[in-house]
Specification:
The structure holds 3 protein chains of 3 kinds. By secondary structure, chain B is of the alpha/beta class. Helix content of chain B is about 40%, strand content about 15%. In chain B, strand 6, helix 7 and strand 7 form a beta-alpha-beta unit. The relative contact order of chain B is 0.12. By secondary structure, chain C is α/β, with parallel strands linked by helices. Chain C folds into 2 domains: about 180 residues, Thiamin diphosphate (ThDP)-binding fold, Pyr/PP domains (Rossmann fold), CATH 3.40.50; about 140 residues, Rossmann fold. In chain C, helix 13 links the parallel strand 17 and strand 18. Classes of the chains: A alpha+beta, B alpha/beta, C alpha/beta. Chains in contact: A-B, A-C, B-C.
Chain lengths: ~100, ~300, ~400
Amino acid sequence: MGTRQYGHKTSHSEPGPGDGGRTGSWRVARPILDASTCIPAKRGAAGCFICWLYCPDGVITRTIPPKIDYEYCKGCGICAEECPTKAITMVEESCFVQAKERKR
Amino acid sequence: MHTKTTILSLPEEEFVNPGTRACSGCGLGIAYRIALKALGRNTILVVPPSCLTVLQGLYPVAATKLASLNVTFASTAAASTGMLAALKALGKQDIKVVAWAGDGGTADIGLQALSGAAERGDNFLFICYDNEGYMNTGVQRSGTTPQWAITANTPIKGKLQQKKDVPAIMAAHNLSYVATCSASYPLDLFDKVSKAVTLPGVKYIHIQIPCPPGWGFETRYAVKLGKLAVETGLFELYEVEHSEIRLTGASRKIADKRSLVPVAEFFKAQSRFRIMNTSQVDEIQERINKKWAGSFETAEDTDAS
Amino acid sequence: MHVIESGNVAAALGVKLSRAQVIAAYPITPQTPLTEKLSEFIESDEMDAQYVPVESEHSALAVCIAASSTGARAFTATSANGLLYMHEQIHWAAGARLPLVMCVVNRGVGAPWTIWNDHQDSISQRDTGWIQIYVNDHQQIIDGVIKAFMLAEEVMIPVMLCYDGYLLSHTYMPFDVPDQKHVDAFLPPYNPAYALDPTRPANLNTVTLPDVRTDTKGRLAHGYMEIRYLLQEDLQGTIDVMARVEERFKGHFGRGGNPHYETYRCEDARFIAVGLGSLSYHLREVIDRLRDEGIKAGIMSIHLYRPFPALAVAEGLAEAEGVIVFEKALSYGYEGALCSDVKAALYAQNGSRKKRPFVHNYILGLGGREIKTIDLYEALHRSCTGGSKAQDGLAWIGLKI
C-alpha cells in the first residue's frame, strides 16, 4: 500500500473512462434500437445519426446500425426522444434484471 | 460564411471519455462533446469551478482527452491570458487556449477578469456554457437566471431581476467575434467554434444549456427545451463581428418566417417557472415581440446565408 | 557593475537577470516602480518577456499560476491589500507546487487605509505554504530574487521575497549588479517535470477526494491529505536546500552565506534582539551603544521565515539570557507572530535545558509609524537591565494613545 511511488506531488489526472464508475448503473430504463426502423440500418448506408449527435455521454457509435454502450449509458432518453422514426424505445431496466433472473 | 457542417461531416473522434459524473441528460454533455470536435487535440482548456469540473472528473481520472487546467472561480480569463503568455514565451503559439466557464464563472464572479482580458485583446476563445444558475452547487440563482425562475435561493418569489445580457456586454468590447449558441443546435455550435478560433483577440461564445434538474423537466426533453427557447424567440442564435449583428440558424428562420412559438409553451414545460402568472407571461411575450419587431421588418433586406 | 539605485529597481534588475518569461503587473504603492521598470526593460527589448497588465492582483497571480503550469518562469510583485486580494491564489500556487517568485514590498493593510511600511501583509500569509524570505538591503534584494528562482524551481514551492516599502523600495543604496552570463551560469532555464502539453494531456488541480483512489492504470494515487503532506515535507526540506543554494551563490558571486539568519555581535551576547528586514539593521546602532555601556547585546536578523528554521534559531538563541523580538506586525488576538515562533522553537529545542532565555515582544512601526532610535534603545535597555520581569506581555513602541 502507499502512494509515495505515484508520479506526481500534485493533483494531476490522466485521461481515462469511468471517472463516475459504471454509470450504466444509473439507468431506470435503457434505450433499445430497432434496426428495422432505424434509417441508416434500413438503408445500409450512412445517414441520420441524430442519436449519435445528441448523446450527452458519447456512448452511441456512428455505425450502421448505431451501437449503444450499456456500460456507461445513463438512460436519459434523449436519443429515443429525438429519433425521427422512433426507432429507439426506452425499456425499463427491471425487464432485463428479470430476464437475467429467469436465465439462472 | 463557410459551408455548414452536417452530422455526417462532423469528425467522428470523441474527445471525452464515457462514464462521467455529469447528470443524465446534461445539455453540457452535448455541447462540450461537439465543441471539442471543433477544437481538436492541439488545445489546452481552462476550467473554473462549475458543472464542467465535475464532468471532467475527480483526481486522478480525467474524462477529457485534452490537456486542461483547473483554476479558481474568478480567474478563468486571467489564467487563459497567463497560459497564452507562456505559450508565446515558449514559441508554441499554435496551441489553442480555450476557456470553458459556467454562467457564474463568466457573468458574475468571472466578469472582471473576462472584461480585462477582452480589453487586452489576448488571443483565446472564451466559452460560457449558460445553464442559467449555479447548478453545480445546487441550483442557486445567477446573473443569467431568467426572471421568475424558482431557484434554491429564490424559492418562493422566483428571481426578480431579468437575465443579464452577457453577449451584449462582450460585444461592447468590440471583439472580433461574439456568438450565441445552444446545446440543442450542435452543428451551429460546431461551425461557430470552428470559425471563432481562426479570429484574433478574445472571442466569446455563449451557449444556452438546458439543465434537467435545474430547470425542472424530464431528461429526455433536454434537446426539445433548448429548441423551444430559440423557437419562442426568448433566446436568439446570432453572431457579432465588430458590432455587426447577424442572426443564424433557427433564429434566422424565425426572422424570415416572422413566426414565434408562444413563450408560454417554454415556461409550461419547466417546473422552475411554476409560479408565473398570466400577466408575467404576457409581459415577457410583449418584450419578445418588441425585440423581434425590428428583425421582422428588415427580414426581406438581409441576405440569406 | 556597481550602481546606486532604489530597492525596487534592484528587484527589477534581479528579475531581468533571472530571465523571467512572464510578468504579471498590477500597480500598488509602493511596488509600482518595480513593475514600471520591468515594463521599461521589456518595451526597450532589454528583456525578453511577456508583460501582462492585469486588471487586479487576483488576476496577476492567476496569470503566473497558468504561465508556470504551462512551463514558463513567472513573476509578479505586490503589497498590502494587493497581496490580500490574491490570498486565494496564494494558497492555490502552493498547493499546485508552482515555482513562482513574488516580491512583496511590505506595507500595512487596511482598514484603515495606509500606504506606509509594516509587515502585516506578508506575515498574514505565513500559513499558506509559500517560502517566505525577508531581506535587509538592496544587495540582498537583487541577490535574493535570483536565489529565489533557483530555490523555487529546486523544491517546486513558490517564494515570497519581502522587503520594506519606502524604507528599502524607495531609498537609494549602492549595490553590485551581477553580469548576465554569471547569472546564467548560476540559474539554468526553467525545466519542470511536467508542463501542460497537448501531446501529454493531463487535467491539473481538479477536485481531489478525501481518500486515496486508483488511477487509470490501477495504481494508488494520493488523496488531498497526501498532496498537502508532501508540501509540508518539502517545505521542511527547504531549510537544507536553502543552505545549499546559498553556498552555491556564494561560490559564484562571493557574497552571502547566511541562508537562515544573519547575526550582528552575537558571539558572546547575553541579550539578543530578533527582527525581520531593515529594522534589524536599524537596531545595529542601538546594539553598538549598549555594547559601549557594557551590555553584551546582539541581533539575529531572520531571513528565512517560512519554513521556520526552528532548530537553527533555537541554537542561535540558546546561550542568551534574554531574547527581545521586535515586530512590525502581529497575530491579532495573541502576540507577534515571530515572537510565538521563536518561543515555540526555544521550547521545542531546549526542552531538556534547565534554563531558557526569557522572551520579550515589542510591536512597533505599524502603518509606517516612525521608529526612533532612542525609543529602540530605551526598550532594549529596559529588557536587558530589567530581566524577564521588566516586560509583561506585549509592549508597544511609539504608541501615542
